[in-house]
């Protein structure tokens, strides 16, 4: 029993909301533990009587954030103050306790970054609206008795996940204790949104977005419908949008159960040569619409590799649209892949599926970066050929579990292949030269 309690406590300490950095602008130090500052509260701030009092809440939410906030608020008259959030999220339990403290004190919330330099000589404080409230920060926002999100601010959500498996979630293994912990905290999230007086819509939307997809940014209509803002009354015309059911194509149910490479990068050693491959579901807001295989194989030299992308996804409503673009993002580099042309086929001819094959050349330095000892990831993004299907664009983040273990075998195989090709080419040149010399000798005048 003690061991179980200790394990559960350790898991609670690492349960966070996964916050990927690729593609999101962030201030340099937003990953530090959240800090608080009260501005416009004293004559020293040169703030007039009608000047707003703002509480800057900047940084990541940790398990200690609620305690730090209580210590910060102790002895202060915070009546009418607004908490200004600029955070990449963090601890689930820390965020819920922090949100409850905000509600207990009757404070308002908004998203932004307070610039105190404008507070002098009676000038009102300035809030830079270009700020993000990511993942669990969105639930802290709900703590405000009044809530406002500027037009230039972003509120983004996604699923909660175990922090020590966030770098490569599909390759992780999960115990019964893990599932108990996650379900317990989902229940706490559900109770929290009820206590805050809003519906379960925000929780429903957040739990659709898996950690390998980018965080889901909420648009203005969603902010109103989900009651994250109170400054504009929700419109009756804004209805909940429920995505249509998407079935996984029958062709994707393979003999191997579709599990090759799902638990990490797997080594293929076949007649065509050694390769590293990974299989991953294609998802849109957590709905699985297909599968893809991503494979690295030997290139023309030791300094490059061939990457191939093979995907099958469900064709929605018999639409003849095809995937129009596939890109690979590694180490801040974006590499467009070339899509192989295919004969146009109707939905009936393809069984209601869209098949795509794309390939490209990846510099060896980028592939070797994935093979390093630290957790790293790459991003595969696709977009549809027709604008009306832009909603089916995908962005999937894949970790490097198994890559470093198997990459040396691939690299050694490629070195042998390149060396063998060089020997063969050299032999061909010698043979060709010998033949030309013999022919020249036969044609020369005889003495």
Q: How do the strands and helices of this protein lay out in sequence?
A:
Elements: H1 2-14, E1 15-17, E2 35-39, E3 54-58, H2 65-73, E4 82-86, H3 92-104, E5 108-111, E6 113-115, E7 126-128, E8 132-134, H4 137-141, E9 147-148, E10 154-157, E11 160-162, H5 176-195, H6 201-206, E12 216-217, H7 220-225, E13 266-270, E14 273-284, E15 287-298, E16 304-314, E17 323-330, E18 333-339, H8 347-350, E19 353-363, H9 364-370, E20 377-384, E21 394-399, H10 403-443
Parallel strand pairs: 3-4, 4-5, 5-9, 8-10
Antiparallel strand pairs: 1-11, 2-3, 6-7, 10-12, 13-14, 14-15, 15-16, 16-19, 17-18, 17-20, 18-19, 20-21
Helix pairs in contact: 2-3, 3-5
Description:
The chain has 447 residues and is an alpha+beta fold. It folds into 2 domains: 2-225, 2-enoyl-CoA Hydratase, Chain A, domain 1; 250-408, Immunoglobulin-like (Sandwich). The protein is 28% helix and 27% strand. The protein has 10 helices and 21 strands. The chain has helices spanning 2-14, 65-73, 92-104, 137-141, 176-195, 201-206, 220-225, 347-350, 364-370, 403-443; strands at residues 15-17, 35-39, 54-58, 82-86, 108-111, 113-115, 126-128, 132-134, 147-148, 154-157, 160-162, 216-217, 266-270, 273-284, 287-298, 304-314, 323-330, 333-339, 353-363, 377-384, 394-399. The strands form 5 sheets. A 9-stranded antiparallel sheet has the order 13-14-15-16-19-18-17-20-21, covered by helices on one side. A hairpin with a 2-residue loop joins strand 17 and strand 18 (333-339). Helix 2 runs parallel beside helix 3 and helix 3 (92-104) packs parallel to helix 5 (176-195). It is elongated, with a radius of gyration of 28 Å. Mean pLDDT is 75; it is low at 1-27, 41-50, 232-259 and 433-447.
């Amino acid at each position: 029993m003690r061991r179980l309690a200790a394990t559960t406590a350790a898991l609670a300490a690492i349960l966070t909301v996964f916050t990927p950095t690729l593609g999101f602008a962030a201030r340099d130090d937003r990953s530090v533990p959240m800090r608080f500052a009260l501005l416009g509260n004293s004559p020293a701030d040169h703030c007039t009587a009608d000047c707003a009092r703002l509480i800057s809440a900047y940084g990541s939410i940790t398990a200690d954030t609620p305690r730090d906030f209580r210590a910060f608020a102790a002895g202060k008259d915070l009546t009418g103050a607004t908490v200004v959030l600029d955070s990449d999220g963090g601890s689930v339990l820390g965020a819920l306790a922090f949100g409850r403290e905000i509600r207990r004190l009757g404070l308002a919330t908004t998203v932004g970054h307070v610039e105190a330099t404008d507070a002098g000589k009676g000038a009102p404080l300035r809030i830079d609206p270009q700020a993000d409230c990511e993942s669990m920060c969105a639930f802290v926002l709900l703590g405000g008795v009044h809530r406002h999100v500027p037009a230039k601010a972003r509120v983004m959500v996604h699923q909660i996940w175990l922090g020590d498996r966030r770098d490569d979630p599909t390759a992780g293994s999960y115990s019964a204790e893990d599932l108990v912990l996650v379900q317990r905290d989902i229940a706490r999230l559900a109770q929290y949104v009820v206590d805050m007086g809003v519906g379960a819509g925000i929780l429903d939307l957040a739990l659709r977005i898996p950690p390998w997809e980018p965080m889901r940014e909420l648009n203005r209509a969603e902010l109103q419908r989900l009651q994250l803002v109170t400054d504009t009354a929700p419109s009756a015309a804004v209805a909940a949008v429920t995505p249509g059911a998407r079935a996984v194509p029958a062709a994707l149910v393979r003999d191997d159960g579709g599990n090759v490479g799902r638990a990490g990068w797997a080594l293929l050693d076949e007649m065509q040569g050694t390769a590293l491959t990974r299989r991953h579901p294609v998802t849109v807001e957590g709905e699985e619409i297909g599968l893809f295989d991503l494979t690295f194989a030997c290139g023309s030299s030791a300094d490059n590799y061939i990457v191939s992308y093979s995907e099958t996804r469900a064709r929605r409503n018999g639409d003849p649209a095809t995937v129009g673009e596939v890109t690979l993002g590694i180490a801040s580099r974006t590499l467009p892949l070339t899509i192989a042309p295919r004969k146009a086929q109707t939905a009936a001819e393809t069984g209601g599926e869209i098949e795509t094959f794309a390939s490209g050349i990846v510099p060896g330095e980028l592939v070797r970066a994935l093979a390093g000892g630290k957790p790293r990831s790459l991003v595969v993004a696709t977009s549809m050929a027709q604008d009306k299907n832009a909603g089916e664009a995908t962005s999937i983040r894949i970790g490097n579990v198994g890559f470093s273990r198997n990459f040396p075998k691939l690299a050694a195989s490629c070195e042998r292949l390149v060396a063998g090709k060089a020997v063969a080419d050299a032999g061909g040149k010698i043979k060709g030269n010998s033949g030309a010399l013999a022919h020249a000798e036969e044609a020369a005048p005889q003495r």
